[in-house]
Structures are given as C-alpha cells and as structure tokens.
Amino acid sequence: MSNNDRNIVLQAEGLCKSFSVVGEKLKVLEEIDLKLKKSSSLSIRGDSGCGKTTLLNLLARLEPADSGLLHWGAKIINAQDKPCSKEANWRAKYIGVVYQSYYLIPELTVLENVMMSVRLSKLSLTNYKERALQLLEEMGVGNKCQQIPTKLSGGERQRVAIARALVNNPVVILADEPTGNLDERTGGEVMDLLLNTCSKEGTSLILVTHNPNYARATEQSSFLKDGRLIYE
Amino acid sequence: MKSAWPLFLAWKQLFPSQRKVSFFSLLAIIGVALGVNVMIVVVAFMQGFQQKFRTDIIDSQGHARAVPLHRQLDWRESVETIKGKSQVSKVTPYLQGHLLVQNRDYNAVPFSMGIEPTDGNGVLPINEFLKNGHIAIQGYDSKDLTPVPTTQTLEDDVVFITQQVANRLGVRPSTILQIYDLNKSENNSISKGDISVVRLDPFVKSGEWVIEFSNDQNFSLRNALGTIERHASLGSGPPDLGWGYPKFDIKEGDYPFASGDIYKFQVFRSSILEVYSPSMIENAKSDEMAPPREVRVGGIFEVPWQGFHADALFGTRRFMEDMRGEVDVCDGFFIKFKSEFFEDEGRLGQLCTKLEDDLDGDWSVMPWFVENAWFFDLLKFEEYLMVLIMIPIGLVAAFAIAIALMTTVLRKIREIGLLVAMGGSRFAVGTIFCFQGFIIGSMGALLGCALALLFIRYRDSLMNFIVTRIAGEEGQAGVTQFYDFYSLDVPYPWESEQSLSTFLTFILFAILVSTVAGLLPAWRAARMNPAEALRSE
Fold this sequence. Notes:
Chain A is α/β, with parallel strands linked by helices.
C-alpha cells in the first residue's frame, strides 16, 4: 500500500444503486468512484433528487448498494451486503453525520445531545465531557449547554449538531445540506464553523450542498448528474 | 465512565431533562401502579381472611381433634398418653350430641357439647367466647353491672348457650343493675368512686340489694327484705356472702363517701331451662317417664368462627353423660400443641400421625386444617379466581403501554434513523422501548406497592369512609355482620413470608408484562430502515 493510499480515509469503487418505482427500476447512482484523503474536504452538488443523500447513505452504510466496494480506512466492505451491527460500532467511531434538519433529541439538553455520540461510541463520558464543552464553546453555544434544543434557534441547533458530529473525533464527517434550513448569513457562519473546525481537527469532510460558494470552499468539488459523479 | 445509552435514552424519553415528568410517563406509571395496588390489596385481604379464619377455627376446635375409631372404655388412659407427650400443651375430652331445650312454650335443639370446665378453657377459649356474647342492658335510670361469666361458674346444672338460642328461648343469665335515683341531683357513682360486681353466679336469687354508708369508711350491705345485713369498711371491702349472692367491690373515687350515701342494686335470677335428651325419648318408649333436667343459663357465648354451630350449648361433660344416660364416656379430645409445633402445618400433620401410632391406632387424630380442608380449598379457589379476574387488569395496562410506546416509535422515526446513523445498532435502538416498558413497570410496581401499604395501613379509615358514604352509619353493622373487616390481620411484607411473596409476585408480574409490552414497539423500531427513517416527514 502506497503512502497515498494510506492517506485515503474513505473510498468508494463502482457504487451502484437503483430503486424500484412503480415496478420499474430507477438507476440513481452508477459506478460511483470516490476517494477522500485524510483532513481533506469534498463537496457534492447536484439537482434535487439526483441521489446526493443516497450516496451519503451508501457511504455511511445505512443502506446496501446494488454493487461496489467501500473502504473505511483499511476496512474493506462489500457495499451490497446488508449493513450489520459490527459496522454500526465502527460507524459510531469513524463517521460523524450532520443533517439539514439537525435531528437533535428534544428530551435531552444541548450537552446531553452532544454527549450522545460519545455514548454511542462507548467512550468514556468523563474524558469527553471537557471536549464537548470546548466544542460547544467554539461553536458559540457554550452558554446554552443546559438548555433543551427546542429553545434554540435554527443556527444554534445546527451548531450543536456539528459539535455532536465532531465530539468523538470521527475520521470523516458526512454533512447533508447542513445549511439548507438556515438563512444566508447564519448558513455562512455555520459553514465557516464546520469547515474551519474540520480543518483544525484534521477531520475529512464530505459536504452535500446546493450552494456553489460553499462548494468552492472545499478542497475538491464534484457534481452528481445522471447517477455519475463528475469532479470539477 | 461508560453508560448503556439505550437505558439512558429510555429514561430521558420518559423523564426529559428540564422537565419533571412527561404526561405519558405519569399516566402509564399511575396505570400500572393502580393495577398492582388492586391486585396486591385483594390478595393480601384474601390472605388476611384466611389467617383470621385459621385463628378462629383453632380457637373453636383446638389444633387437632382425636376421635375414637371404636368404643373406648379406657379413654382416660389415652388422655394421659396424649398429655404425656412433650409437644402437647393441653388436652380436654368432650361429649357431644343434640338436646331439646325448652323455656315455657319456646324450644330449641342446639348442638350440645360437654367439656371439662377445669381444663376445657385451656384448649377452647370459652371465656373469650363468653366475652363476645356478653351484652349489657342499656337503661336511662340504671347501669348494668353484670360481670362477664367465666367457666368457673360452669357446673353440672349450668349451661352456656349461643345468642341465637337465647333469643329463640327468650332467656338470659343472671343480671344485676345499679338503679339510679333520678330525683337526686348528685350522681354518687361518678363523683365518689366505683362500685362493681365481681361475681354473679347463676344461682343468685332475684331481689334488691342496698349499700349504705354510715361515714366515709364504713357501710352496710343488705337485701331489701332485711333478712341479710352485713357491716364492713372500705379497708376490708364488701363481704363475700358466698355462692348464690352477688359479690361487690368498691373502689374509692376523687371524693370521699359520706354518711347517708345509698346505692341500690336490682338482681334478676338467671333463666331456668328444661332439657330433654334422646335417651329420655327412648325411656319414654318403655314407659319410664322422667322429668326434664332443669339447668340455669350461666352465660351467652359467641364463637367467631362462622362454621361453628349457630345454635349451640356448652355444659359440663358430666351433664352430657347424664343426658345421654351413659357413664364415663367421651366422644373425643380437643388437643392443643405447644406454639413451636403448630405453626408449621406439615409438622403438625406429622405429629398427629405419630400420636395415632402412640395410641395404638385406636384413635384418629385430625389436625384442624384437615378437618376444615374444604373451607380452605374454597377460600384458596376464591383467591385464585380473584387473581384470574385481575390478570386482565394487568394486561389492559400492558396494552395501553404498548400502544403508547408504539405511538412514540412512530413519532420518533427520524430520531431512530439518526441513532442508527450515529452508530447505534438496530437492536440497541429497539431496546430503548423495552427499557421504557421496564422502567414504567418497575416504577408503577413500586408505586403500586406503596399504595398497597398505605391501603393496608389505613384500611379501617378507608373502609369506614367508603361504607359511610355508600350505606351511611348503619352500613357499618352490615359490613361487620358478614366479615369482621376491621379486625383483619393483614400483614406487611416484612411481617410475613406469604405477604412478601405476594408483593414480589405482583412486582415481577407488572415488570414482566410492561417489558413485554415494549417488545412490539421495540421490534417495530429495530426493523426500521434508517435511510428511509431519515427521509420520512
């Protein structure tokens, strides 16, 4: 294995995915090849419904592909296999996720929401509490630790979601339109925070976005069209 | 520190941060608690009734009864053999049968039992029964001073009868009333001490008695006819005139007696009954007419065990022998064992079998629970039936929990998807809902136990409250007529193994049913496709 290969934290080879729609097979992704280096960032743009979220789901192994291979670092996964519980444990430590709708758990406080990643990764709560507080401070919501998510604004919620994705030091962050629900100014601030923190923490990022400005801010940009990933 | 996140999340979904308790959790827990409470209370009270009946039966029958398998001529030897056993506390022979009892035109045929007055009370607490049946006459110008009779007054010409027999025949034992002079402004008995009657045997004659003080210490006791008069002082106490006369006692009060203080008492002799026996009928057939036996009513008794004959008569064993026209016979023995032997029914059964062997197989020795097995089987059946009826209550609570948790699963579809995306296994996500069922069941069970303990603690006040609201003050008598609810001994779980076992059984039942109720929602959550869950609206 070359040094170059060793730097690759996430790789997809020939990923294909189709859905059955009214008895007909609709191909969404065709022969997707993707390589993500350590501490690098990749943006994926594309029209609505072109399969961006599906690609992220396949990369996170939330659903099986029709064919293809996945590399999570040195771990090679046959993408058409049904996701198993062993992969769930691995995913908890390896991949962080950020969604457009934040998905914060309303019954938990901000800090407890962030610490959920630590709990799911089966890491020490005591060791990671400091890091969670520090991340929340960096995200500008340090003073909202004990509040419940419903009391926060959209921008604040997304900052908490980013802190939650980063708290257990994952290798890759998969962000699916993280600014989709935010106004332009707040969205810009959140995006800056996400990119800067990932860069500072050395975390690789795959960003799905419609905004070309945010896409340009990543090291690599790509466009998903007709099921194929075109690098710009 | 690591923690089981499904348990943490289950707890938080039931008891969210920044809020004390969720409405759903509260309702679910209260539902389980009420179910557990009802089940425990019903079973605990059923056991309380069983315990009460057990005590009442032992009181009215002793721990065991020995009956001869064939005509025993040497029963006294058998009594001595039983008495010689170290495990036996007391034993008394008895004779039984039916007698015809008559007072004027009224008659009754009570179940009659002849016992030894000396040791009978040691086996059967007849003095307690007499206390239960003692009824004072209420009068506006008199006070009933009749002492509760005891087995000491039971002689061959004296019988004790049940309230039902007494009512049917219109009879009562000897009675003494203190008569107040309503024209007198001062109530002597309250201000100047207490005069009581310590003995009133069945042979006292009707008449009036007077105690008159000549000064603060000395007084005279005389009958109204003036045929008897005795002088005495408070120091020596009222004189004992012997059998056939009332014996008084005087206790000094806050104020001294004074010259001229007079206390009047009216004595009514006990009723006299005419008793006929089947042997007299046999004699009559052979033209040997015999007059009926006359006996006095020594006391009215009431046995707490409803299974005991309502129409019953206690006399001496010799009286029963006379009535049956037999000499030195007995129909069996009542036996009481020492306390360390009768608590365990298995051990008591073994002791009775051993006793049978020691009596050379001439006697059958039946422990109380064998003789009354039918009754306890019935009570047990009733208890099982209650449990059977109440199990659906638990199942209804379980269904309610299952439906509520299923709603939660549907409400939290995207959260479920997120948890899987964050690295939670589908199985672990499913267990959140099982844990919720477990937590609801556990907390509901504990709350239910606490409610049950409160119910047991304040059962009399609660019962009183409920009965008076439903049936008014008179309703109390109606309730106690059937079950002496208020004197029920319902033990706490730390007082009896049986009660502890009841509490634990229903705690486990509630937890199990609630956890199982969470299985369906858990299964639904676990089989959810996380990608689809995240896409859902």
